[in-house]
Each structure stands twice: as structure tokens, then as C-alpha cells.
């Protein structure tokens, strides 16, 4: 599990170009992710799609395995 701290630090969204609606998540493990509230962009979207694809492949073989959670977790 990764631990992140989110900040609105003025990062520009690569999709819509806005900087007032983006949150940059800084992970203590050494990487960052960007999320834009205006257009819904997530820099980890490709990785999430891959997880879903892998989960479907797993579910085809094993009926008792639940797909991974990919919705944002809120405290």
C-alpha cells in the first residue's frame, strides 16, 4: 500500500491545461501522480486499465477473486 499526500501546487493538467483544479499526489515511495477535478484526468489511468484487464483475466479462471478497487480512496 502506498502513502500519498495531495497538494494543489499549480501543476498544469496535460489534458485541459488548467492548473487551478489539479492535485499532485506526492508518494513517500518516490513518485507523483496528477489528478484533475475539471476534466477527470488521472495520470495513473493506463495502470488502472491494466489492472482491470488483469482482473478480468483472473476472474475468467477463478470465480472467487474480486477485482481490485480502483476508485479514489477518501479519508
Which structural traits does this protein have?
3-stranded antiparallel sheet, globular, alpha+beta, 75 residues, N-terminal domain of TfIIb
| CATH architectural group | Single Sheet
- Written as H for each helix and E for each strand, in order along the chain, the element string is EEEH
Taken together, the total number of domains comes to 1
- What helical percentage do the residues reach? 10-25%
Continuous helix count: 1
Q: How much is the average pLDDT? A: 79
Rg estimate, integer Å: 15 Å
Query: Distance between the terminal alpha carbons, to the nearest Å?
Result: 15 Å
Q: Show unreliable segments.
A: none
The portion of residues forming beta strands comes to 15-25%
Number of strands: 3
- The CATH class designation is Mainly Beta
The CATH topology label is N-terminal domain of TfIIb
| Global outline | globular
Largest sheet: 3 strands, antiparallel
Structural classification: alpha+beta
Amino acid at each position: 500500500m502506498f502513502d500519498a499526500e495531495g497538494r494543489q501546487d499549480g501543476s498544469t493538467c496535460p489534458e485541459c491545461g488548467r492548473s487551478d483544479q489539479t492535485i499532485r499526489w506526492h508518494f513517500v515511495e518516490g513518485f507523483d501522480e496528477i489528478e484533475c477535478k475539471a476534466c477527470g484526468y488521472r495520470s495513473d489511468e493506463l495502470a488502472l486499465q491494466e489492472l482491470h484487464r488483469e482482473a478480468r483475466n483472473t476472474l475468467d479462471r477463478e470465480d472467487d477473486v474480486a477485482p481490485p478497487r480502483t476508485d479514489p480512496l477518501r479519508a
